[in-house]
Amino acid sequence: MKARLDALRGRIENAGCDALVSMAPPINQYLTGFSGSTSAVLVTAREARFFCDFRYTEQAGAEVWDGYHIEEVADGLAARLGRGLADAGCRSAAFEPDSMTVRERQDIEAAYSNTLTPAPALVSALRCVKDPAECDKIRAAQSLAEGVLADLLDTLEEGLTERELAAAFEYEFKTRGATGASFDTIALFGARSSLPHGQPGDRALKPGDVVLLDFGCRLAGYCSDLTRTYAFGTMPAAWFNEIYDLTLAAQQAALGAARAGMTCRELDAVARRLIAEAGHGDHFGHGLGHGVGIEIHEAPRVSSRSEAVLEPGTVITIEPGIYIPGQGGVRIEDLVVVTEDGCRNLTTASKELRILGL
Ligand code: ZN
Ligand code: ZN
Questions:
Q1: Measured distance CA(7)–CA(2) in Å, rounded
Q2: 3-class state of residue 181 by DSSP
Q3: Average pLDDT, integer, range 229-251
Q4: Residues paired with residue 309 on neighbouring β-strands, in sequence order
Q5: pTM for this entry
Q6: Which of 13, 205, 300, 314 has the smallest number of Cβ neighbours within 10 A?
Q7: Three-state DSSP class for 37?
Q8: In what order do the strands lie in the sheet with 117-118?
Q9: By the 8 A CB rule, do 317 and 289 touch?
Q10: What DSSP letter does each residue of 214-268 carry, written as one string?
């Protein structure tokens, strides 16, 4: 935590500011260790202050790193931040524009009697690079979710609905020790697998279906993320085999290419080129991946528009997909840590095409 605070202070100074304020739970968890949902943080060159209301005082005492001064506030966290900035004589206080509501900003500025300075990525750029303890937590979350996958795959039978399967994942996450799902579980059968972020519904499983599962859990404050696609009951059709093999080849090419020093755009292009050359460019409409950590989607975005450079310790997903409307889709997603000369896969679930229920 001290290293994070030191690094943050360097970035505040580089941004030409003299303070950071945050009311965003993911940022506050990263900076202080607090896992609750409502808090406020104020950091200057000299001060590190943590504010919460009565509901969280005991929890904050147990969780917040002792480099922060904890204070219970009765009348509004935003106003307290504003007064804190004014009291400390801050002239240029920064905030992350992606992580503050308009109302929070207005309330802070009213009490500060000054305007805040938007500083994009001030904390999120730090959060990109995970330390070994963070990597261990992400791997533990991924491994818990993989255990759930392995067990549930053996229970699939005709008639099970997408909704029931998604609920089973989330039940198992909690009973096995996770806080819960890291996002709403995606379980899609048959032609509905062409919806990249489709919502599980009442569609019942039947032989010949594609089964697309995208899921993750949150454990010790960190998320996991994993997608696998299967066939159910019978040998899949030729079109499915073709896009499965192509998606897997694209994913393996990207896994083989990922290393520190390359840009996210370059990594995205490795998979995208293969898929486009095979004539499915229009069927891969999302980015190759995204950062994962305290949040399920965090920096960096691994897309054709991102010039962000991968650094050792960056945790990203690599998840190409091919989606044919009305027919079905395939996505294969692993979670990796970028290293100097490659990447370390935190995922072990098999990617060999499996026909479930046989
Ligand atoms: Zn996913
Ligand atoms: Zn993902």
A1: 9
A2: strand
A3: 96
A4: 263
A5: 0.95
A6: 13
A7: coil
A8: 69-72, 48-52, 40-44, 19-22, 93-95, 117-118
A9: yes
A10: EE-EEETTEE--EEEEEEESSPPPHHHHHHHHHHHHHHHHHHHH--TTSBHHHHH
User: What is the 195 CA–ligand 2 centroid distance (Å)?
Assistant: 14
Ligand 2 center to 153 CA (angstroms): 20
SS3 338: strand
Is the confidence at residue 235, as pLDDT, over 90? no
- Burial of residue 78 (CB within 10 Å: 0-12, 13-18, 19+) is buried
| pLDDT at residue 236 greater than cutoff 90 | no
User: How many residues would you count in the chain?
Assistant: 358
- Taking the centre of ligand 2 as the mean of its atom positions, its distance from the CA of residue 5, in whole angstroms, is 29
Confidence of residue 85 (pLDDT cuts 50, 70, 90): very high
Q: Which residues surround ligand 1, an ion (CB under 5 A)?
A: 214, 225, 227, 333
Could you tell me the domains of the chain?
Answer: 2-127 (3.40.350.10), 129-356 (3.90.230.10)
User: For residue 213, which ligand has an atom nearest its CA?
Assistant: 1
Question: Please, are residues 241 and 353 in contact by the beta-carbon 8 Å criterion?
Answer: yes
Quote the pLDDT of residue 327. Answer: 95
Distance 350 CA to ligand 1 centre (A): 16
What is the CA(317)–ligand 2 centre distance, in A?
Answer: 6
Half-sphere exposure of 14 (CA within 13 A, CB side): 10
Closest CA to 272 of 228, 344, 321, 317: 321
User: In this structure, which amino acid lies at residue 314?
Assistant: T
